[in-house]
Amino acid sequence: MTRTWQISDVTEAARARIATARLAAAYGVPPVERARLTASLGAQLRSCLTKGGTWRLTLETGTASRAGARAGEEVLHAVVTPSPEAAAAGQPPWRVTVPCPEAVADVGVGAVADDPAELAQALLGADEDTTLVLERLAEQEGLVDFHREELQQTNQGVVALHAELDAAGRAQREAFAAERKARTEAENARRRLTFLADASAVLTASLDHHEIVRRLPELLVPEYAASVDVWLFDQDGDRPGPAHAAAAVVAARTGRPQYAAAHPGGLPGVDDQPPSALAPDRPLLCIPLPTRQAPLGVVTLSPPGERWDPDDAVMLVELTRRASIAIDHAQRYQHNRDIAETLQRALLTELPAPPGLTLAARYLPATHGLNIGGDWYDAFRQPDGGVIAVVGDVTGHGLRAAVMMSQLRTALRAYAVDGGSPGQLLTRLHTFLHHLQPDLFATAVIARFHPDDPTMTWAAAGHPPPVLRTPDGRVRTLDAKPGAMLGIPLRQEIADHTVPMAPGSTLALYTDGLVERRARGIDPGIARLAEALGSFGPAELDADLEGSADGILRPMLSDSERDDDVCLLLCHLSGTD
Which pLDDT belongs to residue 237? Predict the structure, then answer.
């Protein structure tokens, strides 16, 4: 369909505009597009009338080819061709295209009013479609404004919500950061406490101060220190000399930890000092080893990194204090052990060599703990020619037990000078110990040999029984009822026992350290001693009683940790000269 109008005055322009509006409506152009078409056409026609001349309006339907339209869509083209004068002046044609989804083959435009006023009003104003569209547009604009206001309020709410969420997020992140920090600090504190407990257990497990000094660097390097140097002062109290860091000398003199570095360390309880001339580029932490009297020495450490964490420094000072206590205890223990062992060995008797009787003794101090000092043996002659052999054990350990043992030994020798049987001697010792040291007890076994008597007399007070090997190789335990321990708050008379003692017989007296094991008790140990004593031949015991004593100790102590003293006294009757 193609329609053309010549326009040279207002009437023709109005008729063309009205016809265009009606054709657009007939072709199903949407109201909005139709309003825009007629409004744009009206404005263009008014511009043409102003310029003068004859203009031509052409309406044409066809298939879409312009940009923005769907391919194959029916459209309505409107073209205003300028007058020859305007075209000559360079005025281009005016074009507009609108969709017409309800295209028809051909339609009429109907009669258009001839009243010039009505036509002018139609050209200058808006027809009924334009008015309807504008009303709808006004309504839509009102709705748009309403929705825009709602959207603005919604946007403001969203912005406020975002601000609240952002604040909540920041607070949550700060809370998480604080929680992580607290958790990290708690974990570090737990790690330090665990290390301090484990290291303290390692340091206090040994009673050798040299071993403690050796273990301290192994515990600290490399996690808490790059290097560790331990200086112990000598027994005369000399302090470290010029070869050591100046901060170590200050720590020894003041008893306070010192930090030597180019910059202050800010460590709790630690004094700052200038860098050490021995290590100017390396910070040093010098911690004294404190005791009640004076420091034992100084521990000098270098940090594993650039510097120490203050909490790590506090832990190092505490560990050094505990190490000092362990070293001090170990030194005191070793000192007391040396005194007790020296006293013990000084009091052990040089065995006599009476005719027809061979004696061999062994004393081994405990290797673990301060358990020396209580076990003893003795052998001596009585005025009537008899020989007393005794093995005893004072309860308790250390220097006090060694002193009490020496007193019992001296008292026994004094009582034996006046004569008396083993039972009588033990009864006197019981009374002596009860009155002298009411809180100490002892056990003992005494055997008496006489060259004119074919029997051996013995008595025991709370002590393991003697073991006798007869010349034919049989071994038996002399387990007749013994007396109670010496020194208990009871009055007792300890009985004597006799047993035949033929030449070739061997009697073993011993302390519980030889036969007793914590896991098995004492009876299996006595049985093993009897087996070991019975394994020797008579000629072997006659020829080498000392070697036989060693031969008994080897199998008996192979399973022992030697946490108690061991005494063994062998008495072998070889006959009279």
Answer: 47
